[in-house]
Amino acid sequence: KVFFANEQVVPLEHADSNFASAMDCFLSKASIKRSQIISIMSLPPKDVDFADMTPMISSIYEAQILDELETNATDPIPRFDLI
Fold first, then answer.
1. Is 73 helix (H, G, I), strand (E, B) or coil?
2. pTM higher than 0.85, yes or no?
3. Which of 39, 48, 64, 77 has its CA 20 to 30 A from that of 15?
4. Which of 70, 59, 72 is nearest to 1 (CA)?
5. What is the spatial distance between Cα 3 and Cα 32, in angstroms, rounded to a whole number?
6. For residue 69, how many other CB atoms are within 10 A of its CB?
């Protein structure tokens, strides 16, 4: 799995989205299914002021990471192979 976070809180398809650039340049060319790429805004809402929602979006992404990596109370820190 590839976890992708963007320091800019913009919709995935936005011109300023690093995710869109990464998809165009290399992720779409790698043998990785789209379902294996976990992004901070997998389902961006429409017509939303993303700047105001940054804390909530961050919390949702944190929960996604913890769920995807199957952390638990005894080992709550996610482990990544590469950051």
1. coil
2. no
3. 64
4. 70
5. 12
6. 15
Residue 76 in domain? no
- Give the DSSP H/E element, type plus range, for residue 38: strand 37-39
What span, in angstroms and rounded, lies between the C-alpha atoms of 8 and 18? 8
Distance CA 20, CA 47 (A): 19
CB 22 within 8 A of CB 4: yes
- Residue 62: inside a domain, yes or no? yes
Is 27 domain-assigned? yes
Spatial CA neighbour of 24 closest among 11, 12, 42: 12
Quote the DSSP letter at residue 46: S
Q: In this predicted model, what pLDDT tens digit does every residue of 15-41 receive, in sequence order?
A: 888 888 898 999 999 998 988 888 876
